[in-house]
Write a structure and sequence with these properties.
alpha+beta; Nuclear Transport Factor 2, Chain: A; 4 helices
Length: 138
């Protein structure tokens, strides 16, 4: 696939996430997809979803956990860059922690690797401190 088509696949995923359409998410993920959000080597008490996921089932578990714990507003100011089978997005968004009702805002970068029209790898980079404080009581 070319760069424009790969961006289209990533946009399909983002649209499906926004609508909560699990089947549309599955449709663009490779069976053995690798997923990490956020990319970190540090355990975060407030960000319980911060670990690597492997395969469609675990990625759907990521989205389920995230939606249970966070109310995410639409992504803003997204800029897409693509080269070969890689798509990079720069963006920002706001949300709030369901358990504390505290708001958060953060800038992020997502990197997607694709093969044959499917997402095979995803890495989400952001400053976890921008979000973690919203999830901690006190």
């Amino acid at each position: 696939m070319n760069e424009r088509e790969n961006i289209g696949v990533v946009k399909k995923l983002l649209d499906a996430v926004g609508k909560g359409d699990m089947q549309a998410m599955v449709d663009v993920l490779a069976d053995d997809v690798e997923w990490q959000s956020p990319v970190t080597r540090t355990e975060h008490k407030g960000i319980t979803w911060s670990r690597e996921r492997h395969g469609r089932e675990e990625v759907l578990g990521f989205f389920s956990e995230l939606s249970q714990k966070s109310k995410i507003e639409p992504f803003e100011e997204m800029k897409f860059t693509a080269q070969d089978d890689r798509v990079v997005i720069e963006g920002k968004n706001r949300g709030s922690a369901r358990g504390t009702s505290k708001p958060y805002e953060h800038n992020w970068i997502m990197v997607f690797d694709l093969q044959g029209g499917k997402i095979v790898k995803h890495r989400h980079y952001y400053d976890t401190a921008d979000i973690e404080s919203a999830f901690l009581l006190g």
